[in-house]
């Protein structure tokens, strides 16, 4: 515990008083190579190159001599490929305009001032995106770049950070840290480091991605007219990512650093975890209780106690005498096991994994050639060098141990890596092979966790015979989304941490990491029934949905607090399962475009000043708005609905947007609203996402009175990579309302998956008029009759709902609803 001694006058000093006095000086020579221009200056070099998706890359080589060769190799954050960073084939156009050079790329023109190498980034109309008037460094080779900002700027992104959505006035460090103290606003670094800042200026949005996996700092605090990015080692290597819209920035950034892989559908289901379910009997009991109580669940996690004295790739023979049989039995119940795997390998000469890694020289080494040894759960441990392809392959192959038992998902923890020593991680001078470009741990610390998850995901894929693996990771760097889902580490059962999860997960989504979520109910400390109920309501709509809690905290499975809380948990977890077609379509959209699955309102309503820092509401896709209650004993809250009309999901009440109002939210109610024009696909709730796939689809159409709506509905087998060979269905759904007529169309964009839904029930909700279906089937007299009809429709005048049944796979369909004369 800290006391006031910490702030005694002689202890106060600023680490950042270090001045950056060294600068590039004048440009003395320019050289052009394919896709890049190199400016040699008095005191170093500056490379300007074209990158993927309209971005430009700026690389500073501080102190480089004029004849020094420069290395333009990128980090593993950048997606490899032909149009990857620095790999552009075409020459860039360079013009000398007197005081500066102009370098033209597809989207951005870069102005390099001859006097001092300062930079401006413009588009073809002359609009200035970003201004970087200062780049400097010091003797320790720590380098800084300053960018101008206006007083109306807002900042987003930066991955997993505490604080609010808008990062104005904040300062953060990028250094993957296992921080078990409560996550509060002044914590500058957590487990993930995504050095990607979105700068939202009134004129346009752009992104700055600082591709430096060592320690870096983003400072939006020191000046209100500028922000700085600073890297401790290896200099500056940054990308300017153009907008003009926020969505463009996210799309382009995820083209550069990659997008999520479509996960197996079971991993989008509900996960139950605890540190730890201690033995096989307890796990089976857990599974049986879920099924008895009819609470949907797809996954039970095994925390560290399943291992034999915390040796990775082992099971404790006494606690888990027959894991294979357990896994088989669980599968018949529709439940999968996801075991934890940490990077620390117990230093034990009699242990196979330690022996193999030592014999093949796959662990991280100190400068004297001895392995780095540090304590973690198993005691003194060694650490695989995941920056080495050979070590990654070996590690990946070790996962056969799990896949042979029928395991398809792995939970990577402690991979910052966390070490119980003074540095809290691997010593900074430890050497990494880094695929042929040796680097110290200080230089590439933030890559460790991501490369572990890459090794895991690739190894699992090799061993799963065409089935998709699931990997969950605590640590990560830009690009982690390509390999793993992310949870936000050791939060606490505090209401404040429930509230914090919203901006944190929303900014992770804007930073490319769209498959993420917190420990529902809170990890440390003791939850209450009320907190669990509220957190489950919110978490049920988050991309990653896992309840997890720590040793010796009160139990927090959904039934731990009596029937009221249990019913609420069941209701909202079931809601998640009934919305699976919607969720899965959003995962596919994210895999294709990088769009987050849950979104801050500002992504969809960038012009609305009310949402620039709205942290306690979010959108699921662009159709459903959630406004969770995150305070105890609170049954009302203010909700802001953006422009347009909205319908209360539970009561159907219509509300006009563009205003705030007071929502009533008793404990069993999560305020949820659906946009007019929305098309919500759902099924009956299943208990298991993979093993019970409903054949009937419901489409709830929130009929627009005068307007339109659209949704891309996606489906495939949810389990294999067959979708990559076109075994999927994609339907473009569209609804259009004009006075007295509503038109709904289905256009099958692709139908390559034969096992799709067999029966479709469409409901035009909130019809603005008494309607009938033109030219279609037979009219049912009542709803019951409709259920038995092969095809038919029914108008419920009280609810103003018109229901239509289609008993066939969907083909091109056009339905027109007319007002009765
Ligand atoms: C770390 C993880 C936590 C896990 C625990 C034991 O604290 O963040 O989720 O339960 O280690 O493995």
UniProtKB/TrEMBL annotation:
<dbReference type="InterPro" id="IPR025887">
    <property type="entry name" value="Glyco_hydro_31_N_dom"/>
</dbReference>
<feature type="domain" description="Glycosyl hydrolase family 31 C-terminal">
    <location>
        <begin position="594"/>
        <end position="680"/>
    </location>
</feature>
<dbReference type="Pfam" id="PF01055">
    <property type="entry name" value="Glyco_hydro_31_2nd"/>
</dbReference>
<dbReference type="InterPro" id="IPR048395">
    <property type="entry name" value="Glyco_hydro_31_C"/>
</dbReference>
<dbReference type="GO" id="GO:0030246">
    <property type="term" value="F:carbohydrate binding"/>
</dbReference>
<dbReference type="Pfam" id="PF17137">
    <property type="entry name" value="DUF5110"/>
</dbReference>
<dbReference type="InterPro" id="IPR017853">
    <property type="entry name" value="GH"/>
</dbReference>
<dbReference type="Pfam" id="PF13802">
    <property type="entry name" value="Gal_mutarotas_2"/>
</dbReference>
<feature type="domain" description="Glycoside hydrolase family 31 TIM barrel">
    <location>
        <begin position="261"/>
        <end position="586"/>
    </location>
</feature>
<dbReference type="InterPro" id="IPR033403">
    <property type="entry name" value="DUF5110"/>
</dbReference>
<dbReference type="Pfam" id="PF21365">
    <property type="entry name" value="Glyco_hydro_31_3rd"/>
</dbReference>
<dbReference type="InterPro" id="IPR030458">
    <property type="entry name" value="Glyco_hydro_31_AS"/>
</dbReference>
<dbReference type="GO" id="GO:0005975">
    <property type="term" value="P:carbohydrate metabolic process"/>
</dbReference>
<keyword id="KW-0378">Hydrolase</keyword>
<feature type="domain" description="DUF5110">
    <location>
        <begin position="696"/>
        <end position="764"/>
    </location>
</feature>
<comment type="similarity">
    <text>Belongs to the glycosyl hydrolase 31 family.</text>
</comment>
<feature type="domain" description="Glycoside hydrolase family 31 N-terminal">
    <location>
        <begin position="49"/>
        <end position="219"/>
    </location>
</feature>
<dbReference type="GO" id="GO:0004553">
    <property type="term" value="F:hydrolase activity, hydrolyzing O-glycosyl compounds"/>
</dbReference>
<dbReference type="InterPro" id="IPR011013">
    <property type="entry name" value="Gal_mutarotase_sf_dom"/>
</dbReference>
<keyword id="KW-0326">Glycosidase</keyword>
<dbReference type="InterPro" id="IPR000322">
    <property type="entry name" value="Glyco_hydro_31_TIM"/>
</dbReference>
<dbReference type="InterPro" id="IPR013780">
    <property type="entry name" value="Glyco_hydro_b"/>
</dbReference>
<protein>
    <submittedName>
        <fullName>Alpha-glucosidase</fullName>
    </submittedName>
</protein>
């Amino acid at each position: 515990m800290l006391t006031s001694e910490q702030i005694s006058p002689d202890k106060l000093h600023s680490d950042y008083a270090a001045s950056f006095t060294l600068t590039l000086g004048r440009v003395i020579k320019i050289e052009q190579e394919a896709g890049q221009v190199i400016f040699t200056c008095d005191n170093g070099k500056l490379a300007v190159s074209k990158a993927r998706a309209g971005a430009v890359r700026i690389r500073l080589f501080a102190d480089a001599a004029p004849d020094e060769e420069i290395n333009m190799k990128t980090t593993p954050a950048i997606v490899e490929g032909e149009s990857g960073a620095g790999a552009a084939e075409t020459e860039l156009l360079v013009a000398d305009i007197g005081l500066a050079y102009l370098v033209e790329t597809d989207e951005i023109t870069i102005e390099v001032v001859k006097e001092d190498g300062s930079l401006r980034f413009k588009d073809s109309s002359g609009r200035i995106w970003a201004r970087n008037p200062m780049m400097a460094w010091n003797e320790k080779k720590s380098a800084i770049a300053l960018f101008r900002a206006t007083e109306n700027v807002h900042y987003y992104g930066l991955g997993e950070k505490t604080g609010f959505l808008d990062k104005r006035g904040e300062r953060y460090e990028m250094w993957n840290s296992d921080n078990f103290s409560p996550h509060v606003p002044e914590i500058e670094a957590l487990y993930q480091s995504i050095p990607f800042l979105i700068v939202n200026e009134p004129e346009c949005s752009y992104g700055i991605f600082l591709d430096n996996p060592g320690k870096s700092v983003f400072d939006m605090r020191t000046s209100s007219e500028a922000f700085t990015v600073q890297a401790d080692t290896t200099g500056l290597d940054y990308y300017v990512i153009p907008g003009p819209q926020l969505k463009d920035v996210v799309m382009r950034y995820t083209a550069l650093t990659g997008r999520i892989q479509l996960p197996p559908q079971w991993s989008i289901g509900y996960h139950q975890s605890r540190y730890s379910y201690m033995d096989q009997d307890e796990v089976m009991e857990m599974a049986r209780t879920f099924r008895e109580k009819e609470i949907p669940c797809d996954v039970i996690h095994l925390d560290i106690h399943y291992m034999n004295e915390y040796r990775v790739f082992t099971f404790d023979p006494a606690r888990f005498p027959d894991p294979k049989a357990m896994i088989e039995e669980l599968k018949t119940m529709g439940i999968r096991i996801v075991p934890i795997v940490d990077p620390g390998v117990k230093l034990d000469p009699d242990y196979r994994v330690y022996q193999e890694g030592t014999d093949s020289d796959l662990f991280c080494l100190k400068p004297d050639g001895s392995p780095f040894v540090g304590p973690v759960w198993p005691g003194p441990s060694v650490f695989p060098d995941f920056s080495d392809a050979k070590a990654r392959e070996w590690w990946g192959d070790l996962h056969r141990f799990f896949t042979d038992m029928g395991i398809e998902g792995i939970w990577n923890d402690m991979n910052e890596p966390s070490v119980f020593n003074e540095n809290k991680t691997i010593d900074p001078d430890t050497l990494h092979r880094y695929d042929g470009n040796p680097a110290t741990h200080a230089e590439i610390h933030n890559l460790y966790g991501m490369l572990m998850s890459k090794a895991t995901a690739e190894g699992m894929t090799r061993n799963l015979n065409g089935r998709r693996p699931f990997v969950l990771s605590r640590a990560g760097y830009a690009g982690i989304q390509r390999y793993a889902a992310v949870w936000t580490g050791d939060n606490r059962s505090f209401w404040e941490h429930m509230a914090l999860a919203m901006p944190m997960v929303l900014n992770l989504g804007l930073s490319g990491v769209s498959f993420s979520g917190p420990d529902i109910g809170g990890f440390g400390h003791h939850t209450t029934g009320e907190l669990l109920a509220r957190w489950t309501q919110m978490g049920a709509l988050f991309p990653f949905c896992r309840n997890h809690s720590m040793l010796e905290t009160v139990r927090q499975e959904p039934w731990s607090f009596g029937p009221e809380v249990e019913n609420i948990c069941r209701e909202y977890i079931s809601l998640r399962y009934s919305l699976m077609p919607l969720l899965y379509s959003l995962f596919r959209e994210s895999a294709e475009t990088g769009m987050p699955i849950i979104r801050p309102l500002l992504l969809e309503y960038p012009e609305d000043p009310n949402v620039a820092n709205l942290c306690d509401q979010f959108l699921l896709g662009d159709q459903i708005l959630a406004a969770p209650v995150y305070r105890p004993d609170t049954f009302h809250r203010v909700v802001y609905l953006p422009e347009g009309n909205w319908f209360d999901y539970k009561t159907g009440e219509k509300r006009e947007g563009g205003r705030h109002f007071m929502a009533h939210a008793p404990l069993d109610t999560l305020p949820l609203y659906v946009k007019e024009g929305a098309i919500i696909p759902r099924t009956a709730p299943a208990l298991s996402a993979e093993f019970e796939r409903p054949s009937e689809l419901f489409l709830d159409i929130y009929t627009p009175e005068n307007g339109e709506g659209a949704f891309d509905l996606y489906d495939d087998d949810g389990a294999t990579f067959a979708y990559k060979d076109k075994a999927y269905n994609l339907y473009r759904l569209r609804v259009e309302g004009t006075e007295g007529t509503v038109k709904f169309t289905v256009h099958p964009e692709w139908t390559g998956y034969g096992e799709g839904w067999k029966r479709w029930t469409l409901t035009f909700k909130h019809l603005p008029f008494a309607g009938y279906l033109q030219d279609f089937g037979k009219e049912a007299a009542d709803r019951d009759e409709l259920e038995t009809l092969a095809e038919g429709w029914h108008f419920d005048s009280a609810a103003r709902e018109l229901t239509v049944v289609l008993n066939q796979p969907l083909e091109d369909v056009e339905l027109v609803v007319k007002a009765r004369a």
